[in-house]
Amino acid sequence: xxxxxxxxxxxxxxxxxxxxxxxxxxxxxxxxxxxxxxxxxxxxxxxxxxxxxxxxxxxxxxxxxxxxxxxxxxxxxxxxxxxxxxxxxxxxxxxxxxxxxxxxxxxxxxxxxxxxxxxxxxxxxxxxxxxxxxxxxxxxxxxxxxxxxxxxxxxxxxxxxxxxxxxxxxxxxxxxxxxxxxxxxxxxxxxxxxxxxxxxxxxxxxxxxxxxxxxxxxxxxxxxxxxxxxxxxxxxxxxxxxxxxxxxxxxxxxxxxxxxxxxxxxxxxxxxxxxxxxxxxxxxxxxxxxxxxxxxxxxxxxxxxxxxxxxxxxxxxxxxxxxxxxxxxxxxxxxxxxxxxxxxxxxxxxxxxxxxxxxxxxxxxxxxxxxxxxxxxxxxxxxxxxxxxxxxxxxxxxxxxxxxxxxxxxxxxxxxxxxxxxxxxxxxxxxxxxxxxxxxxxxxxxxxxxxxxxxxxxxxxxxxxxxxxxxxxxxxxxxxxxxxxxxxxxxxxxxxxxxxxxxxxxxxxxxxxxxxxxxxxxxxxxxxxxxxxxxxxxxxxxxxxxxxxxxxxxxxxxxxxxxxxxxxxxxxxxxxxxxxxxxxxxxxxxxxxxxxxxxxxxxxxxxxxxxxxxxxxxxxxxxxxxxxxxxxxxxxxxxxxxxxxxxxxxxxxxxxxxxxxxxxxxxxxxxxxxxxxxxxxxxxxxxxxxxxxxxxxxxxxxxxxxxxxxxxxxxxxxxxxxxxxxxxxxxxxxxxxxxxxx
Length: 742
Prior knowledge:
This protein has 26 helices and 11 strands.
C-alpha cells in the first residue's frame, strides 16, 4: 500500500493545479445538485415490521383520516379567567374556525365537545388533523396555523403547539459548533507550530465535508432520510477530515525538519506512511458505519451510509487534494529552526511523549489495574440503561413543544402526553359480535392500574377498524408506560379469538418498539464489530495479541461512554451545565451508533500509535524501546487529533436538538476516554507486559493474511533536497532537442 501511495502522491504533486481544480469543480457540481434536487427530510424514526408501524399502515389503508398528522393546539386562559368564559370561548371558537381553512387540514376538534378541557377550566386543547402523515405536513401549513392563533395571544391567552406533526428537524451550524471549529484551529496551530499549516487541515476538511453533506442532501431526494443523518455526516466528516489531514501534515513537517529532505519527496513519503494509516483507519470507519445496515433498520442504515460516504470523501481528500495543496506551498511548509541562546535547553521532539511512555511502562501491571477499574466504574451506570426516543419534554424549555408538554401535564396529568392508540381490526369479526368485543376490550383497558382514561371508540366509515385512545397515568419516558404497552398487547389473543386483531400505536408506542428493535440488534452488531477489529488489526500488525488488546480496550471505551451517557441523560446529572431540558431514556439508536463510530475512531488512534511502535520494532527488535519511541513520535499528533475530535463533537453538545446533543456528548466523552486512557495509557502498559509476544503471528495464519505494509518498509531510499529547486513553480519537462543531421 505504501509504495503505491508514494507513486500516487508524486503524481498528485506534479499535477497539483489540475487536482485542485477537479475538487473545486466537484464541489460546485455536487453543491448544485444538493441545493436544487434535495428532498424533504423526515423527523420520524420508524421501523417497518414493528407493531406500531403495522397499525399505522392499517390506518392508512382502511381509515386514512386517523393516520394523518396532528398539531395539538394547547390554550391556557389568562390569570383569573377560564377558557369557558364567554369572551375566551368566543375567541377560541373563532380561531379554530379559521384553523379549519388552513391548507391540508381535514378536521378540527372542539375542546368543549370532546372533553378536552381541564378540571379547573384553565387549559384546553384542540387536535388539528391533516390529511398527510405527520412527517409530510408542510412547514408553511404549520406556520399559517400558528398565525391563525395570534388573536388568542393578543387576547392574553397562552397558545402552544404540540402533536405528532410538530417534531422539529435536526439542524447544525450554530454558534456552539463554530466554537468547536475555532478550538480545533487553535489546537492545530499549537500542534503544528504554524498558522498556515494549521489552516490547511481546516480548509481541506471543510471542502470534503461540503462535498459529503451536499451529496447527502442530493441523495435525500431519492430515499427517505432523517435530518439527524446529515448532522451526523457533518459531525463525523469534519472531525475525521481535520484529523486525517493533521496526520499527513505533521509527518510531512517532521520530515522537513531535516534540511537535506526535498519537499516533494517529503510529501510523497508522508502520504505513503501516514497516508497508509489514514486509508486503513478510514476504511475501518467506513466499514463500521456501513455495517449499521445489518440492523435491518432503514433510518439507521441511511444514517450509517451517509456518515460512511463523508468519511470516504475525507480519506480521498487526505491522499489527493492535500498532497496537491502541500505542493503549492512547497518549501514554505518547512518548519523554522528555533534559535536558542543555550543548546543545553534544547529538547528533542517528542520528549514529553517519551517521558510519558517510560512512566507508564515502569509499572505496567499497576497502570492496567487502575485504568481498567476506573473505566469499569464509569461503565457501571450502563447497567440501568433504558432506551427510547426523546419526548417533547426534552426539547428546549423555550420551544413551543416543551411548553405545550408542560401545559398538558399541568391540566390533564403526566400520562396525557403518552397517549396510546389502540387499533382494532374488526373486519373478520362477525357483525353481531363487534360491539361486544370492543366494549369488553375498553373495559379491560380502563381497569388497568396505570390507565387514567380510555376514549370512546371511533369506527371507520366501513366499520372495519375501531380506534380508541388510552391515556396512562405515567409519563412517556417512564418504565411504567412501557410495561402498560406490553400488558395492552397481551390482550391481543382475546381479540384474535373473535376473529379480530389488536394493535397498539402512537408516538410513545413507536418509540418503545424502535428501542426494542435496536436493543435486540446491539449484541449482534457489537459482535461483528469486535470480529472485524480482530481481522483488520491482525492484517495491519501481523499479530494476534495486539488485536485482542485493541478490541478489549474498545469495549472498555464503549462501556464507559454509555455509562457516562446514562449518568447524564437518564439519571439527570450535569443537566444545568449541559442545558438538558429533562431526564429520560437514552436515545434508542445511540448505543448502536456509538459502537460503530467509536470503533472506527478508536482504530484510528490504535493504527497511528501502534504502527509507529511496529516501525521502530522492525528496525531495533527491542520491544521496550519500540514502545517508548513509538509513543514519543506519535503522542503529539494523537493527542492533538483527539482534542480536535473532542472539540468538534463537544460543540454539538450545546445543540438544541436532544438527539444531536446526546450523540455529541457520547462521542466526545468516548473519544476522550479512548484516546487518553485506553490508547495513550493502557496500550503502552499492555504492550510492555506482552513484550516480544505482542508481535508474534502463527506461520500458517501469516501466510494467509495479505501484507499491506502501512509502515512504508519497502519505500525507496529518501532523495536529498535539490538546492536550486524553486518550490513555487511547476517542474518543466525539457523540450526535446531537434535531431542533428549527419
